[in-house]
């Protein structure tokens, strides 16, 4: 997304735990690197301060950090806590930091990277499924609450994308998403096309809309299909 936005003329401020990687991409796109933890209040504050100090305003905030932890109720406390902090609270803290600026200006846009798991579920990972549902719900809350004041939000909900996160999902991820996984550049192209538009959900895999409708309208049928997949994974 940083590369795509920069190609369209955006001035970027990039945050990541991997200081070498974020500096390399920032150098490539002519942006500013802010190494640190985007899930923490300090990390968010450093990102926002860097953007405001350099550019005087923030037009779009992309809450894109995410982690996947496997397991169900038996997953340990650390797995649940880390998933909550990164997949949900990073979005909350980002919104808390930028909203005063946006409301004063009367404009701003929040893009929350969730997942198709936030609309459906991810087999083998309750922490991921639960927190991605929460990420979608938070973006929806923002859009409902602030759109009439000029501040809008969208939720980005892909299925498999060929990144380190997909690789880390192991055999389960390969079975569920390997055949339909797309490149990060494909996601970035769609984001650039849909960003700021009327569609709340940005769905790089369009079939997710059909799955989501089936889940809502026929939950028993949807769950039966998912149980079949669960048996395949097992």
Strand order of the largest sheet: 3-4-5-6
Shape: globular
What is the total number of structural domains? 1
Secondary-structure element order, N to C = HEHEHEHEHEHHHEHH
The number of helical segments is 10
Q: Briefly, what CATH class? A: Alpha Beta
Averaged pLDDT, please? Answer: 93
Helix proportion range: 55-70%
Q: What is the CA-CA span between the terminal residues?
A: 35 Å
Q: Low-confidence parts lasting 5 or more residues at pLDDT below 50?
A: none
Radius of gyration: 18 Å
Structural class: alpha/beta
Count of strand segments: 6
Strand content: 5-15%
CATH superfamily: NAD(P)-binding Rossmann-like Domain
Per the CATH scheme, the topology name is Rossmann fold
What labels describe this entry?
234 residues; alpha/beta; Rossmann fold; 4-stranded parallel sheet; two-stranded parallel sheet; 6 strands; SDR_fam; SDR family oxidoreductase; oxidoreductase activity
């Amino acid at each position: 997304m940083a590369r795509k936005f920069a190609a369209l003329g955006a001035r970027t401020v990039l945050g990541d735990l991997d200081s070498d990687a974020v500096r390399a991409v920032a150098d490539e796109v002519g942006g500013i690197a802010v190494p640190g933890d985007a899930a923490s209040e300090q990390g968010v504050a450093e990102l926002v301060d860097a953007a405001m100090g350099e550019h005087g305003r923030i037009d779009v905030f992309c809450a894109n950090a995410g982690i996947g932890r496997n397991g169900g109720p038996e997953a340990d406390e650390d797995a649940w806590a880390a998933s909550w902090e990164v997949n949900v609270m990073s979005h909350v803290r980002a919104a808390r930091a930028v909203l005063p600026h946006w409301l004063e200006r009367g404009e701003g846009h929040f893009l929350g990277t969730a997942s198709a798991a936030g609309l459906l579920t991810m087999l083998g990972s309750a922490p991921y499924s639960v927190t991605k549902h929460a990420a979608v719900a938070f973006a929806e809350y923002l859009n409902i609450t602030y759109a009439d004041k000029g501040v809008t939000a969208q939720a980005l909900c892909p299925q498999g994308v060929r990144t380190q996160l997909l690789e880390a999902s192991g055999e389960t991820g390969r079975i569920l998403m390997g055949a339909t996984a797309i490149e990060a550049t494909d996601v970035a192209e769609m984001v650039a096309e849909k960003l700021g538009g009327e569609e709340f959900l940005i769905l790089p895999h369009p079939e997710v809309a059909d799955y989501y409708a089936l889940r809502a309208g026929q939950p028993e049928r949807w769950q039966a299909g998912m149980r079949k997949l669960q048996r395949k994974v097992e």
